[in-house]
TrEMBL record:
Positions annotated to bind Fe cation: H127
Higher taxonomy: Bacteria, Bacillati, Bacillota, Bacilli, Bacillales
CDD domains: Fur_like (cd07153)
GO biological process, one term: regulation of secondary metabolite biosynthetic process
Location(s), subcellular: Cytoplasm
GO cellular component: cytoplasm
Gene expressing this chain: perR
Organism: Paenibacillus amylolyticus
Main location, first listed in the record: cytoplasm
Family: Belongs to the Fur family.
Binding of Zn(2+), residues: C95, C98, C135, C138
Protein's name in the database: Peroxide-responsive transcriptional repressor PerR
Amino acid sequence: MATRVQHALEQLKTTGVRITPQRHAILNYLMESMGHPTADEIYKALEPQFPSMSVATVYNNLKMFLEAGMVRELTYGDNSSRFDANVTDHYHVICDQCGKIEDFSYPSLKSVELQAESSTGFEVHGHRLEVYGVCKSCRHQ
Protein backbone atom coordinates (compact mmCIF):
# COMPACT_ATOMS: atom_id res chain seq x y z
CA MET A 1 0.00 0.00 0.00
CA ALA A 2 2.75 2.44 0.90
CA THR A 3 4.14 2.25 -2.62
CA ARG A 4 0.69 3.09 -4.02
CA VAL A 5 0.47 6.13 -1.74
CA GLN A 6 4.03 7.18 -2.63
CA HIS A 7 3.25 6.83 -6.35
CA ALA A 8 0.13 8.97 -5.96
CA LEU A 9 2.07 11.61 -4.02
CA GLU A 10 4.77 11.69 -6.71
CA GLN A 11 2.03 12.22 -9.32
CA LEU A 12 0.74 15.19 -7.32
CA LYS A 13 4.22 16.69 -6.97
CA THR A 14 4.64 16.71 -10.76
CA THR A 15 1.53 18.91 -11.02
CA GLY A 16 3.04 21.40 -8.56
CA VAL A 17 0.94 20.38 -5.55
CA ARG A 18 2.72 20.72 -2.21
CA ILE A 19 2.60 17.51 -0.19
CA THR A 20 1.56 18.48 3.32
CA PRO A 21 1.41 15.96 6.20
CA GLN A 22 -2.40 16.34 6.14
CA ARG A 23 -2.59 15.54 2.41
CA HIS A 24 -0.38 12.52 2.93
CA ALA A 25 -2.53 11.31 5.84
CA ILE A 26 -5.85 11.83 3.99
CA LEU A 27 -4.62 9.98 0.91
CA ASN A 28 -3.13 7.19 3.02
CA TYR A 29 -6.37 6.82 4.99
CA LEU A 30 -8.40 6.65 1.76
CA MET A 31 -6.15 4.05 0.20
CA GLU A 32 -6.12 1.87 3.30
CA SER A 33 -9.83 2.23 4.02
CA MET A 34 -11.99 -0.40 2.42
CA GLY A 35 -15.15 1.19 3.79
CA HIS A 36 -15.53 4.08 1.33
CA PRO A 37 -15.45 6.78 4.05
CA THR A 38 -17.26 10.10 4.11
CA ALA A 39 -15.27 13.33 4.53
CA ASP A 40 -16.54 13.51 8.11
CA GLU A 41 -15.32 9.96 8.86
CA ILE A 42 -11.89 10.86 7.46
CA TYR A 43 -11.81 14.01 9.58
CA LYS A 44 -12.78 12.14 12.77
CA ALA A 45 -10.20 9.42 12.12
CA LEU A 46 -7.37 11.90 11.55
CA GLU A 47 -8.36 14.55 14.13
CA PRO A 48 -6.28 13.00 16.97
CA GLN A 49 -3.19 13.08 14.76
CA PHE A 50 -3.95 16.57 13.34
CA PRO A 51 -5.91 18.53 16.00
CA SER A 52 -5.60 21.79 14.05
CA MET A 53 -7.01 20.29 10.82
CA SER A 54 -10.54 21.38 9.93
CA VAL A 55 -13.32 19.55 8.10
CA ALA A 56 -12.87 22.15 5.34
CA THR A 57 -9.24 21.02 4.92
CA VAL A 58 -10.46 17.46 4.37
CA TYR A 59 -13.10 18.59 1.84
CA ASN A 60 -10.64 20.82 -0.04
CA ASN A 61 -8.08 18.02 -0.30
CA LEU A 62 -10.71 15.50 -1.40
CA LYS A 63 -11.80 17.96 -4.11
CA MET A 64 -8.20 18.28 -5.26
CA PHE A 65 -7.76 14.47 -5.30
CA LEU A 66 -11.01 14.18 -7.31
CA GLU A 67 -9.82 16.72 -9.87
CA ALA A 68 -6.50 14.87 -10.14
CA GLY A 69 -8.40 11.63 -10.86
CA MET A 70 -6.99 9.93 -7.76
CA VAL A 71 -10.29 9.26 -6.01
CA ARG A 72 -13.93 8.81 -6.98
CA GLU A 73 -16.90 10.39 -5.28
CA LEU A 74 -19.79 8.02 -4.63
CA THR A 75 -23.14 9.66 -4.06
CA TYR A 76 -26.08 7.69 -2.76
CA GLY A 77 -29.51 8.57 -1.37
CA ASP A 78 -28.27 9.51 2.11
CA ASN A 79 -26.83 12.87 0.97
CA SER A 80 -23.34 12.07 2.22
CA SER A 81 -20.72 11.53 -0.43
CA ARG A 82 -18.35 8.65 0.09
CA PHE A 83 -14.87 8.51 -1.36
CA ASP A 84 -13.10 5.62 -3.06
CA ALA A 85 -9.37 5.58 -3.84
CA ASN A 86 -9.86 2.58 -6.13
CA VAL A 87 -10.31 4.25 -9.51
CA THR A 88 -10.13 1.01 -11.53
CA ASP A 89 -13.33 -0.35 -13.09
CA HIS A 90 -15.29 -2.08 -10.35
CA TYR A 91 -18.76 -2.17 -8.83
CA HIS A 92 -20.26 -1.83 -5.37
CA VAL A 93 -22.53 -3.98 -3.23
CA ILE A 94 -24.31 -2.02 -0.50
CA CYS A 95 -25.94 -3.27 2.69
CA ASP A 96 -29.54 -2.06 3.08
CA GLN A 97 -29.27 -2.21 6.86
CA CYS A 98 -25.88 -0.79 7.92
CA GLY A 99 -24.83 0.98 4.72
CA LYS A 100 -21.56 -0.96 4.39
CA ILE A 101 -20.14 -0.79 0.85
CA GLU A 102 -17.86 -3.44 -0.62
CA ASP A 103 -16.12 -3.56 -3.98
CA PHE A 104 -16.54 -6.43 -6.39
CA SER A 105 -15.22 -7.01 -9.87
CA TYR A 106 -17.15 -8.20 -12.86
CA PRO A 107 -16.17 -8.05 -16.52
CA SER A 108 -17.04 -4.61 -17.80
CA LEU A 109 -20.58 -4.19 -19.03
CA LYS A 110 -19.36 -2.54 -22.25
CA SER A 111 -22.13 -4.23 -24.23
CA VAL A 112 -24.72 -2.42 -22.07
CA GLU A 113 -23.08 0.91 -22.92
CA LEU A 114 -23.07 0.06 -26.63
CA GLN A 115 -26.76 -0.98 -26.49
CA ALA A 116 -27.64 2.27 -24.69
CA GLU A 117 -25.85 4.27 -27.39
CA SER A 118 -27.50 2.42 -30.23
CA SER A 119 -31.00 2.60 -28.67
CA THR A 120 -30.88 6.26 -27.69
CA GLY A 121 -28.31 8.01 -29.82
CA PHE A 122 -26.53 9.14 -26.64
CA GLU A 123 -22.75 9.21 -26.50
CA VAL A 124 -22.16 7.11 -23.38
CA HIS A 125 -19.20 8.06 -21.16
CA GLY A 126 -19.55 5.37 -18.52
CA HIS A 127 -21.88 3.61 -16.15
CA ARG A 128 -22.29 2.78 -12.48
CA LEU A 129 -23.65 -0.45 -11.07
CA GLU A 130 -24.81 -0.86 -7.49
CA VAL A 131 -26.09 -4.09 -6.01
CA TYR A 132 -28.14 -3.96 -2.79
CA GLY A 133 -28.60 -6.61 -0.12
CA VAL A 134 -27.80 -7.46 3.49
CA CYS A 135 -24.17 -8.02 4.55
CA LYS A 136 -22.96 -11.05 6.55
CA SER A 137 -22.70 -9.07 9.80
CA CYS A 138 -26.29 -7.82 9.60
CA ARG A 139 -27.62 -11.25 8.56
CA HIS A 140 -26.07 -12.91 11.62
CA GLN A 141 -27.45 -10.45 14.19
